[in-house]
Protein 1
Amino acid sequence: MILVNEHYAKLQASYLFSDIAKRVKAYQAAHPDQRVIRLGIGDVTEPLPPACIAAMHHAVDEMASSATFRGYGPEQGYDFLRAAIAANDYQARGAQIEADEVFVSDGAKCDTANIQELFSSKTRIAVPDPVYPVYVDTNVMAGRTGKARNGRYGGLVYLPCTAENGYVPDLPEKPVDLIYLCFPNNPTGATATREQLTRWVEYARANQALILFDAAYEAFIRDPAIPHSIYEIEGARDVAIEFRSFSKTAGFTGTRCAFTVVPKSCMAYNRAGECVPLHPLWNRRHTTKFNGVSYPVQRAAEAVYSPEGKQQVQALADFYLGNAKIIRETIADLGYQLTGGVNGPYVWIRTTQKDSWKFFDKLLEKAQVVITPGSGFGRCGQGYVRISAFNSRANVEEAMARIRKVL
Ligand SMILES: Cc1ncc(COP(=O)(O)O)c(C=O)c1O
């Protein structure tokens, strides 16, 4: 008899964004002539930077000739891209990361989901609340949690991110082995200072723990004092894995390219307490289960680091940050408390309603604007909503004008 993985039955009913999609679909079916503006899901709207398009076209032409055609590439990514990432994203910021510590992939979602298979099923896990749901759900699927009760899974250590701690979690009160951190944060838009990240790195070093640092929104940091990488913190190489993505940086959500950095000095332990380097383990997983990102896409990603590419991706992030500013100003003007939208593309708003979904329904029904209910990201998100800056300027302006009328 084929048995199912019963841990799947613990997953809470449905994934946040499919819930939203269902409500929007039902609303649109009932009101076919209303134009709905979506500031909910974090998908980009602007086209790929011209430098990426030119590089991709050129690479497609190479695939058309037997002299330059490429078949399977190295699973870890082509050397040209790994070297560009190490030099520009890390060494240029004083972080000692080498090209062969970079693993190119087709998404930070899959990497943050897949990394947990390197760790024991007994691992004690800390997750922020609110949180990007992938970190939690993948550990539920793998059987590392108990059942859900009141929106929280047994066995996980939740780290509240609230207005009181500036949405940067405090160190856990119970001992943990694996800590998920995400800065700039989805959903709160919060960033962590050098001192705050240093505290986490010191905690991990003192407790033989590991930090999984998701920096998918790094490109939106404008404050020069905020670290872009966990590896800007001394000692982080030994206790942290970092995830990055070209999705939000360069509009690659539909093109798919990302990378994970596993430094060679980064360790976990076996039952005897001996160090086990994680780099060979991730290399083994990656080469066994993944066959690489397509050559034209890797060439497009490499172009992000060319002089024109750098200017174009900066302009792209600046454009979305301009939207975020309009959202922040409108919502603050209406008297709501908010955070984010300065070094990240999300604005996190404390609503007047106890239930985030009520506020969601109100904006959908009265303003035809889709936002994201904060409760979908965790218990601490209840009463909050997230507004995404990913849309055209015209749509953001129109959405804010409608919200102004309704609130
Ligand atoms: C925090 C965070 N990490 C990772 C991802 C996924 O990135 P990718 O498109 O590279 O899979 C997202 C996408 O919304 C995200 O918000």
Protein 2
Amino acid sequence: MEPKDGPDKILETERLVLRQMTMADVDALMDIFSDPEAMRYYPSTKSREEAKGWVRWVRHSYEENGFGLWAAILMETGEFTGQCGLMPQEVEGHREVEIGYLFLRRFWGRGLPTKAAYASRSYGFRRLGLDRLVSLIDPANVPSKRVAERVGMKFEKKVNWYGKRICLYSITS
Ligand SMILES: CC(C)(COP(=O)(O)OP(=O)(O)OC[C@H]1O[C@@H](n2cnc3c(N)ncnc32)[C@H](O)[C@@H]1OP(=O)(O)O)[C@@H](O)C(=O)NCCC(=O)NCCS
């Protein structure tokens, strides 16, 4: 699928456009990163400077790998609902590609992360030709496990990840 509305648009679902993230998204990202509930399973909330570093990391991945996390924009209103996409991760010495998803709390419970994650899965398999995708999930993060399962991933094993034991969910094409 070629982007339809310019080079920054990657793909779309029924309700969302996934497009490349830019520094202009930092304010919206802070609605996730400054929310202790959304960041419950991350080491801490993030400062604005850290959010800028996050965007630089994501944009570096676009250049280096041709994919990364994308901004999920609600078509109906143009609102930034969250971020979802594919990021390479090194897990216990293996290169994996993770389906990642972090959404603003006010957009939880409407199926948007599930649809965005499913579209990212299809993009990874069909467009990028990847044969395996994973998600790295804190054992207590039940909503995230549910998204992974709805996307077709299965619990594979526990792995060491930044000093914690984390559940690795995976799917092969
Ligand atoms: C993980 C996260 C994205 C999940 O968000 P979510 O709101 O549960 O995701 P969804 O809306 O796709 O979940 C679907 C829920 O909405 C409901 N829903 C409503 N309309 C729906 C629709 N059209 N399609 C699918 N589900 C729908 C489902 O029944 C489901 O409820 P359930 O979990 O009780 O079964 C969110 O909690 C988040 O951003 N957390 C913070 C960041 C984070 O931890 N990310 C994961 C790191 S591994």
